[in-house]
């Protein structure tokens, strides 16, 4: 089943184009990472998906039009925004009562058992909690909702390493199953690399790259090359090169290499799967100049 | 534009298990959690009034003797007076609290970004706006009435106790003071004037709070003031100001208010009131304001 389907999604704020005709299809059971620089249109895309902003073009989320059917859609969609958006005055017990009251798919016992593993007390107000605890609380609410789609917009922004690690661990171990779909945007790309099943780069309102993680792993390779071999390696046309401790790290798109050259790569040094961040820099960096390696 | 929504129910429709009334009740409860001044302010006003009333009690016995010398009409008015003041204070408190609540209701949630959380819940904009309108129109009036009635009864018992202790006979003094009837009339007054008659003011303030990016108070107050002044300057008339005062006064016919509480309430005869066109245009204006506020909230993002 298709979870999100967009065709020609456009959104402009005055003369600024936030989304420039996006085509998107997210199947059920995927974890999609939407990666892009600041102001690329990530948040606008998520807002359109959540029915928080009007748009042009076609968009269906779980078979519904998010703009006109937001309230029904939110029975099946959960959302955590970049900065904690829980009202600061609310008590933990009150927010549990409220969600229990209004959400048909909220399992309060599940949320309570998740909270029991934290140091969050029911009598505290959100104001009294640390940023990490607010995120834990929100995550406890979200994980206790039997939703089909979870949208995360910079969920770990401003959290320390422990909370960030815990966040994705909980999400993968206690929440995700093959019937749910997760869309996440983040700048901390390295943390989600092992979490994602699909990857999408967005820049200046357009999707500039998209693939599954299997494809990503089989298609791209990174080789650390000693200075004396750099010229030979460069002849194979890496899509990106960066210096690392006196050596060079070259990023290759294996689909542009023939079989012989591919086998040859190992001779230059260790061949590894690159970081998403490095591919991101390669693709977006190149996009500024001649658009090598950029696939629409 | 967006594609029109398909009217055919989708398979996800079985999840609509929460009834609209429950959504509304939960939303109203959440408003009371957030705005504790809705009940703290009337309670505080009532408490302050009772403290003041204690001082009045000291000179009550001598006051009562003076009252006995008056003719029955003035006697009644003099005995009613503190009770009227208590009711008036609580109604005034409710109006101030209601006004500030309404101007903040749809603005505060955008200011603190919590609108993103509320919108992530399966609660429609209409339910949210109706729950926020229900606060000044019904909930606050009920709170004010309950506190006012409680204060009146406490005053009544305290006065009786003081007079008994002073050795005065209380029966003749209290005969013109039917407290139960006064309570009912108070409730009636709150329902008619403070709910129905003032509804367009609350509707307007809620609409402004959903529209204004900042300073909803100024946007709520200054435009009506400006319209009144411009009308006066250009046409040398004051129909608009008159209309506002007519609605604010809550009285279809602001005649001489010489009598006591009963007289003041007496002319809000239900039949007369329902035939008053001002009531219906006011309620229609309220509906328009709330519809606009609902529509605006859909477009609204954190500010």
Low-pLDDT runs of chain A: 289-296
Number of domains of chain B: 1
Which runs of chain B of at least 5 residues are low in confidence (pLDDT < 50)?
1-15, 252-264
Q: How many beta strands in the DSSP annotation of chain A? A: 13
Main beta sheet of chain B: strand number and arrangement? none
Span from first to last CA of chain B?
24 Å
Give me the CATH architecture of the largest domain in chain A, please.
3-Layer(aba) Sandwich
**Outline type of chain A:** globular
Report the oligomer: heterodimer
Major sheet of chain A:
6 strands, mixed
Give the rounded overall mean pLDDT of chain B. 83
State the strand order across the main sheet of chain A: 5-6-7-3-8-9
**Helix coverage percent of residues of chain A?**
25-40%
CATH C-level class of the largest domain in chain A is Alpha Beta
What order do the helices and strands come in, and which of them pair?
The complex is a heterodimer of chains A (296) and B (303).
Chain A (H helix, E strand, L loop, with lengths): L1 E12 L2 E12 L3 E5 L6 H9 L5 E6 L8 H4 L3 E4 L11 H11 L5 H9 L14 H13 L5 E5 L7 H15 L5 E5 L3 H4 L5 E6 L2 E7 H7 E6 L4 H5 L5 E5 L2 E7 L5 H10 L2 E2 L3 H13 L8
Parallel strand pairs in A: 3-7, 3-8, 5-6, 6-7
Antiparallel strand pairs in A: 1-2, 1-4, 8-9, 10-12, 10-13, 11-12
Helix pairs in contact in A: 4-5, 5-6
Chain B lengths: L19 H15 L2 H22 L1 H9 L3 H40 L3 H5 L5 H41 L5 H4 L4 H19 L1 H13 L4 H20 L3 H11 L11 H6 L3 H5 L2 H23 L4
Helix pairs in contact in B: 1-6, 2-4, 2-6, 4-6, 4-9, 6-8, 6-9, 6-14, 9-10, 9-14
């Amino acid at each position: 089943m298709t979870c999100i389907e967009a065709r020609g999604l456009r959104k402009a704020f005055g003369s600024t184009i936030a989304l420039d005709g996006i085509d998107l299809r997210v199947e059920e059971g995927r974890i999609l990472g939407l990666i892009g620089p600041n102001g690329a249109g990530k948040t606008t895309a998520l807002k359109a998906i959540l029915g928080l902003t009007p748009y042009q073009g076609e968009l269906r989320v779980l078979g519904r039009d998010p703009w006109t059917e937001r309230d029904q859609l939110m029975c099946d969609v959960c959302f955590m925004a970049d900065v904690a958006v829980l009202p600061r005055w609310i008590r933990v017990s009150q927010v549990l009562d409220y969600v229990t009251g209004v959400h048909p798919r909220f399992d309060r016992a599940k949320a309570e058992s998740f909270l029991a593993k934290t140091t969050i007390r029911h009598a505290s107000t959100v104001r009294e909690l640390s940023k990490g605890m607010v995120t834990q609380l929100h995550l406890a609410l979200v994980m206790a909702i039997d939703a089909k789609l979870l949208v995360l917009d910079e969920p770990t922004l401003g959290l320390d390493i422990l909370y960030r690690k815990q966040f994705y661990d909980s999400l993968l171990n206690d929440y995700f199953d093959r019937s749910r779909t997760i869309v996440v945007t983040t700048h901390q790309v390295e943390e989600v690399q092992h979490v994602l099943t699909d990857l999408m780069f967005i820049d200046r309102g357009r999707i500039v790259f998209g693939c599954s993680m299997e494809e990503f792993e089989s298609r791209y390779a990174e080789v650390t090359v000693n200075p004396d071999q750099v010229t030979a390696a460069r002849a194979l046309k890496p899509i990106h090169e960066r210096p690392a401790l006196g050596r060079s790290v070259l990023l290759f798109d294996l689909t542009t290499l023939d079989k012989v050259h591919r086998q040859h790569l190992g001779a230059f040094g260790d061949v590894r799967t690159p970081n998403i961040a490095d591919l991101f820099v390669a693709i977006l960096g190149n996009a500024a100049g001649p658009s090598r390696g950029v696939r629409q | 534009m967006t594609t029109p929504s398909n009217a055919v129910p989708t398979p996800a429709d079985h999840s609509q298990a929460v009834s609209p009334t429950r959504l509304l009740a939960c939303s109203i409860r959440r408003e009371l959690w957030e705005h504790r001044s809705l009940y703290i302010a009337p309670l505080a006003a009532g408490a302050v009034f009772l403290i003041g009333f204690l001082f009045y009690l000291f000179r009550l016995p001598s006051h009562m003797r003076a009252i006995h010398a008056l003719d029955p009409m003035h006697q009644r008015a003099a005995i009613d007076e503190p009770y009227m003041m208590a009711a008036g204070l609580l109604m005034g408190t409710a109006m101030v609290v209601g006004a500030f609540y309404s101007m903040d209701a749809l603005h505060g949630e955008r200011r603190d970004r919590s609108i993103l959380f509320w919108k992530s819940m399966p609660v429609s904009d209409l339910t949210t706006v109706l729950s926020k309108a229900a606060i000044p129109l019904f909930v606050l009036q009920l709170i004010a009435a309950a506190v006012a009635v409680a204060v009146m009864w406490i005053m009544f018992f305290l006065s009786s106790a003081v007079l008994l202790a002073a050795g005065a006979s209380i029966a003749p003094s209290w005969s013109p003071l039917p407290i139960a009837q006064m309570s009912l009339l108070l409730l009636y007054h709150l329902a008619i004037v403070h709910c129905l008659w003032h509804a367009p003011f609350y509707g307007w303030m809620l609409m402004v709070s959903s529209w204004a990016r900042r300073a909803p108070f100024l946007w709520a107050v200054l435009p009506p003031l400006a319209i009144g002044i411009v009308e006066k300057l250009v046409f040398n008339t004051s129909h608009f100001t008159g209309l506002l005062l007519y609605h604010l006064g809550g009285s279809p016919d602001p005649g001489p208010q010489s009598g006591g509480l009963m007289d003041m309430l007496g002319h809000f005869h239900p039949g007369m009131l329902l035939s008053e066109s001002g009531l219906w245009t006011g309620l229609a204006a309220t509906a328009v304001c709330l519809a606009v506020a609902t529509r605006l909230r859909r477009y609204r993002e954190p500010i």
